[in-house]
């Protein structure tokens, strides 16, 4: 019997982490690009049917909130997320913002022309008026590797302006540590607290010294993408943070899911259970509450 089989045989309460939050996951993504994406490319009922059991499994494992990190022009559907939230009884947070990573494939033409202030005003309006009746709870953006392209810098500055006005935290898909440090400079220059900035995909940076520098500056360092092929590295990252007394600035998640628009049957939809059944049992038990409950609630209030 494998280790996973042994864990699966345990009573559910021993595996559950009641009140836990998954800070970086996806339910649906459409990678077609900003100039081609449109609502009619998928059947919301099919997405609902396939996503619901995945989300119900996460709830059974103790998850009470999932941050759906798909941004606008990449498949964001706030109405569908609200429908799933109501059906499953699991909070599903949506976002405002724009995503500049992947060489700006998902940046619409208007965002290339407008200023950071104009973009921020769009996102502030989404916060104030809602997205199809749903209030966004965080800002999602993304940048490529450093040094930052001018467009990437503008998106980060817009996110900082929006955060300063609304109090929303910023979750930024970040290409590497050099880009992360530039982002921190931009956010700080806008007089936005660095405690509202989440460095997404920090596991992609192999230099722990940069993880430490960002955390000591006050930012959140998120090691997501946790899965069977990466768990050892993620453990190394967390052990480093703990050794520097910085575990209180760390976040973890899987970047899992998702219904892939355009793929037959939505493609290979990975569920949200691995972090509970396989990864958390490998951690120091004293870390679990901080990483899964306390830190997420502080980073995303």
What does this structure look like?
The chain has 12 helices and 11 strands. The chain has one domain (28-299): Metal-dependent hydrolases (TIM Barrel). α6 (116-129) packs across α7 (150-166). Strands 5-6-7-8-9-10 form a 6-stranded parallel sheet. The chain has a 3-stranded parallel sheet with strand order 1-3-4. It has 301 residues and is α/β, with parallel strands linked by helices.
Rg over alpha carbons = 18 Å
Question: What is the architecture at the second tier of CATH?
Answer: Alpha-Beta Barrel
| Total count of strands | 11
Mean pLDDT score:
95
Order of strands, main sheet, comes to 5-6-7-8-9-10
Kindly report the name of the CATH homologous superfamily.
Answer: Metal-dependent hydrolases
Order of helices and strands: HHEEHEHEEHHEHEHEHEHEEHH
Helix fraction by DSSP (H/I, runs of at least 4): 40-55%
How are the elements arranged and paired?
Layout lengths: L2 H7 L2 H4 L4 E6 L2 E2 L14 H17 L2 E6 L9 H11 L2 E3 L1 E2 L12 H5 L2 H14 L8 E5 L7 H17 L3 E4 L3 H13 L7 E4 L7 H10 L2 E4 L7 H13 L6 E3 L6 E2 L13 H6 L5 H15 L2
Parallel strand pairs: 1-3, 2-11, 3-4, 5-6, 6-7, 7-8, 8-9, 9-10
């Amino acid at each position: 019997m494998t280790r996973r089989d042994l864990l699966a045989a345990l009573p559910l309460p021993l595996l559950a982490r009641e009140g836990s939050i998954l800070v970086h996951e996806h339910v649906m993504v459409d990678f077609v690009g900003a100039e081609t994406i449109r609502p009619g490319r998928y059947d919301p009922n099919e997405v609902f049917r396939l996503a619901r059991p995945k989300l119900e499994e996460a709830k059974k494992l103790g998850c009470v909130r999932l941050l759906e990190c798909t941004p606008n022009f990449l498949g964001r559907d706030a109405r569908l997320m609200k429908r799933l939230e109501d059906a499953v009884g699991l909070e599903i947070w949506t976002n405002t913002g724009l995503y500049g990573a992947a060489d700006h494939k998902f940046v619409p033409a208007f965002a290339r022309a407008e200023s950071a202030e104009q973009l921020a005003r769009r996102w502030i309006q989404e916060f104030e008026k809602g997205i199809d009746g749903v209030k966004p709870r965080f800002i999602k953006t993304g940048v490529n590797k450093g040094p930052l392209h001018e467009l990437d810098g503008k998106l980060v500055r817009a996110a900082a302006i929006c955060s300063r006005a609304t109090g929303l935290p910023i979750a930024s898909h970040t290409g590497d540590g050099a880009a992360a440090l530039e982002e921190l400079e931009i956010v700080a220059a806008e007089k936005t607290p660095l405690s509202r900035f989440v460095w997404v995909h920090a596991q992609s940076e192999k230099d722990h010294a940069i993880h430490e520098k960002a955390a000591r500056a006050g930012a959140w360092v998120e090691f997501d993408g946790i899965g069977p092929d990466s768990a050892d590295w993620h453990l190394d990252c967390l052990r480093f943070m703990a050794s520097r007394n910085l575990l209180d600035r760390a976040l973890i998640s899987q970047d899992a899911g998702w219904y892939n628009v355009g793929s037959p049957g939505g493609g290979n939809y990975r569920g949200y259970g691995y972090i509970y059944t396989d990864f958390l049992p490998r951690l120091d038990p004293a870390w679990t509450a901080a990483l899964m409950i306390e830190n997420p609630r502080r980073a995303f209030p």
